[in-house]
Amino acid sequence: MQPSGTDFARALPQLAADILLRVRRHGPRVHCITNTVAQELTANVLLAVNALPSMTIAAAEIAAFADRADSLLVNLGTLDEERRAAVGIALDRADEKRMPWVLDPVLIDVSAPRAAFARTLLDRGPAAIRLNAREFAALAETAPDTAALARFASERHCAIGLTGETDDVADATRRVRIANGHALMARITAMGCAASALVAACLAVEKDAFLASASALLIFGVAGEIAGEEAQGPGSFATAFLDALYELDAGEIADRAEVE
Length: 260
What we know:
The chain is an alpha/beta fold. It contains eleven helices and eight strands. An eight-stranded mixed beta sheet has the order 2-1-3-4-5-6-7-8, with helices on both faces.
C-alpha cells in the first residue's frame, strides 16, 4: 500500500528513484505523437533515461508502432490533420492493449478548436494529463485550485500534473507539491513536452498514475536544478540538463527533493 499525505511526500524521493531504476532497467518504448518543435528534445530526454522513443505519425505505420509501445504520449502542439488522424489510430490501439497514455494539451488556451478536440480526448481515458495552469483552466473551464484539480482528476479517473514554478500533482484523493527546478527551464522550448514524455516512460513501469506523474516531475525538476548550477545560459543548460538526467541517482534525488 502506498503512503498518503505527508508520508507520501517524505517517501516520494525513494519511490521516484525506484521508478527511474525500473525505467533504466526495462527500457520501455514510448510512442510520442508530439509537435515538430519538441521531437528532438523529447527523444533525447527519453534516451537519457534508457527509454526508447518512436515518433511516426504516418497513417500506414502508426498502428504498428503503437502495438510495439509500452506507453503513449499525445501532445497537441502543431496539431495538423495528420496528427489528429494519428491520435485516433494510436488511441484505438491503446484501448485494445490497455496501454497507458498521457495527454499534453499544448496551448489549448489559445485555440478554441484545439481545446474542443482535447475535451473529446478526455473520453478516451488518459492515465495522466500534464499541463500548465492556463491549459488546465481551458480544459476544465475552471481555475486550477486544489479542489478543482481533485474534482477533475476524480471525474476523469486520471492523475493531473500541473507544472509551473511549483508543480502540483493530484488525483482524486492525493496531492503533492514539488518545488524543484530552475528558471532556465522556461527558456528552453519543449521542456514541458519532454516532461510529459518522461511521465509516459514512468507510466510504462508504474501502474499508479499519480505516483508515476509525481516521480517523473520530481526527477525532471531535480535534473533541471543540477543543470542550472552549471549552465551559462539556455544553450548550455539544454546540454547540462540531458547530462544531469543521464547521471541522476537516488542520492541526488533524496538530497535535493523539495516535496510537500
